[in-house]
Structure formats: structure tokens, C-alpha cells
Amino acid sequence: MAEVINMPRLSDTMEEGTVAKWLKNVGDKVEEGDILAEIETDKATMEFESFHEGTLLHIGIQEGEGAPVDSLLAIIGEDGEDIASLLNGSASEAAPAEAAPVAEKEEPVSEAAPAPVASAAIPDGVEIIKMPRLSDTMEEGTVASWLKKVGDEVEEGDILAEIETDKATMEFESFYSGTLLHIGIQEGEGAPVDSLLAVIGPAGTDVSAVLNAPMEATADSAPEVAAETKAETTENTSAPETPVSDGQRVFASPLAKKMAADKGINLATVKGSGDHGRIVKRDIENYTPAAATAAPVEKVVTETVAEAPQQPTVQVYTPVGEEMVEEVKNSSMRKAITKHLGASKFSAPHFYLTIEVDMDNAKASRAQINNLPDTKVSFNDMVLKACAMALRKHSQVNTTWTDDATLFKKHIHMGVAVAVDEGLVVPVIKFADQLGLTQIGAAVKDLAGRARSKKIKPDEMEGSTFTVSNLGMFGILEFTSIINKPNSAILSVGAIVEKPVVKNGEIVVGSTMKVTLACDHRTVDGAVGAQFLQTLRAYLENPVTMLA
Question: Does pLDDT of 334 surpass 90?
């Protein structure tokens, strides 16, 4: 009896998952406990093991694709077992909902949203590649660039395209070998998840049945359907289609049309490099008019006054250029960061306190510690340790506001802001007040490294009670941060600088560092924040007290 494996919920906040990598292929034997795939959640990439034995009969979500929790992930059963009923049952549910609008209204079909293709129209050996769900919040993807062209040979593992999601631009690799027969979404175009992205199969295969059979709209058929409707019903009026000399219309992606309209380029004069001669973003970017614009003329103005010496020649230069604006869609990660920080900034009344810390003793202590064998401590490690110890004495700062009560955390979990390619993550050092400097340093290095490689676990980024953000390594002297909810405060750490300071009535060269504490005024008052900073300064200016 075949077993249906659904997309698991691997974290408490996970709504959708993306298959980062399949470790088993269709036809492989699977033992209970074998790792089936690596699944990317909203927080980390995790291994997912099988709880069943048998043969992997079907993969429902390809590598790089995402789907909601409980979606069909795979089917495991006896070798050769018929699973058509399991597959057709899920496919038939979505078909009526998609077909209804086409029957009821004669609305133009969007070129950017090809309809899904039914499996019944797929010839033997032909594989349909759909727009993958590459992040948990991704609803639509945009093809940033194609690395393969129609007619190219594709090997399993080759990178087909770069796809821009709502979080990042990611490489999408092929899980099939064959010839790229069709490209359904052109460069610069966007389409919903599960739209027809590409078709791969044996060279020379006629894929017209795949493109036309199940629905009346695909990436190539959409323009013809749209052309039969009245022009006034078309909502996209930013770049009207321009007929060419032979009476046929110009095929171009929506982004290419918009760019051409902004630049005043006649699409009929542009040669398309996309599938079937379609004009795409790069064609507009690389467009050169047939007749070059004449070079700017230098106007020479010479004025003379009667009975006066000749005035110097004035050369007037007329600058010539083209105003350009590039529209870049907001990524998913940026949207998530905006939503999280916006909720904090606009709900928590922030105020900021800044102090300057004498770091001479800290520099000397760090140099001595790092002279020990196999020991490496950074200034950031010292700041984290000092904050953890200061929180012991100022529990009001280690709190969380709720509508009904203020939660005083008896444990101290330090969040460390880490910049990654896709945005910002905050790994958490648990019970930091119980760790020594070298232990904190090792923990930060491990967590930050795994965060950048997307191997960090979800629970390692949860539960912070206080956060530290350090931009000192970039030469930033002073800045303010937005509180990382549900914390009540965050510390912004600037660079250590050498400058003249007054010590014992004399001006000497000293090393100082500015730190700024952002506080939620609902839980932390000004005096409480100031006392916390005084304690923090005492620890940093006398590092030996942190070793006690």
C-alpha cells in the first residue's frame, strides 16, 4: 500500500517549506530512517527522514520548489505500484477553479501568468518544469536570467535560471536531463508559483500538445488570446503593442514594454532575443538606435563691443543624457524585515541613551587573552559578556511587554545580529551569563557561520531576551537600532577609535567606543536604562571583573 508523504511542519511558525535538495531519486529504495530531502523552512534548512520503507514512486515537490505544509511531498510504496489515483485526485481539485474564469469572461490572459499544465497532455520523456516556491512566503517569482536557451542540452544539476523570489534571487537547477524544448516565462517576467516555467525532453519533441491541451493560456498562446479581445479591456496600458510591417504584433514581456515606453523606444525596431523572438528586458537594455544621435554641438558665442577689447570666447556645453529609473521588486526577506521592524518601531515607543566607554583596559586585556594558546576573543565577545552580566543586575531591561503584563525573564539569552546575503538574522546564545569569554566567542563563530550557510536550526534563532548589533567593524562610530521584538532593548556598538582624552588632568591619546541603548519606554524607563549602561561601562572598562 503506497504511503503519501506530506510537507512536514518543521518549526512552530512554518506555513510553507521549500525542498532544498532531494537525497533520493524516483525508483530508489528507501529504508525507515533514511534522509529523504533537505527542506528549507522559514528559519533554516533541515534534514527530513522517512518513516516508511519501500520504493520512492513519486516526487511531488521538485528541488527549489515550495509548497504549504501538508502538501503532497512524495509517495513511497511497492516497486511498480499504480499511484495514478493518488495523483489524479489532487490534480482534479484545482482544475475547475482555474477553468471557471475562462468560461465566464472574455478577459485577456496575462502574459506573465501562464496556466498550469495537466499531466495528461505530457508525452513520454517530457518533463514539465513549474515556477518553484523558493521561500515560505513566495507567491510569485520573476525570472532574472536564463542560463540555458531553447535547444540547449541540459544535464541533471545544471543551473537553468536565476529566479527572484520575495526574499532573494536564487539559482534554480534542473532535476532532469534532456533538451530545453520550451521557455514559458521570459527574462524579466513574473508568474505565480506552479506556472509553466519550462519544458525539457528529447530533442525534436513536439510540445504543442503540452502547451495547448489542458488550458487555453500558456506563455506563448497568451498573446494570441489577448489579441482577440477588445483593446479597451486591457488593463496594462503602459506599453501598447506595436504592429510590425508585416501586420503581425510585437511579442514582448510586460517589463520590456514598460521599459520601452519609459525610454520612448518603438518596439517594432527592437530585435527580440527571447523564445520565438520575444522582446525581453535585456533587449531594451542593449538597444541601440539604427541612426545614432548626433553628437552634442558646442555652441561658440563670441560677443564684441564697439571700441572695446574683444571679450574672451565662452564655450557653452549642452549636457545630453537619458533619464533612467530601474524598478526592482522588493524581495520577500526585505518585506519580512520591514514588517517585523515596522511592527516594533511603530508599536514600541523607542528612546535612546548613548555613552562613551574607555577601551584602553579592554584592548590590553584582549591582547593578553589572545596570547594564550588556542584562544581567540573579540571585542564583540567582551560586549556580549558585559551585557549578560549587566542584565543580571538590571532585570527590568530583560523583559517583554504584553497587553496584560510585563514578563520578567529569569534567563539571559543574547541575540547577535548577523548580516547574511539575503538580509539579517539573529542567532541566540542561550544562558550567556553562564558562559566565559572564550565560550561566547566560540558560540558566536559557530552560529554566525551556520547562519550564513543556512544550516542554523530554527530553535537557535528563537528566544532572545536582549540583542546586540555591532557595526564597529565597518567604521561606524555611532548609530541607533530598532528593538528586536519581543525584547525590551537593543545595544548598538560603534567602532573603537583613538583620540585625545583627558586623564588625570592631562590630555593623552586614548581609545574610546560609543554604545547606544534603544529602550522600549513601556518597560524600561530612562533611569533604568542609564543605570544599565553605567554597569555595562564598569565591566568593559575593568574586564577583569568579568572573569570573576
Answer: no
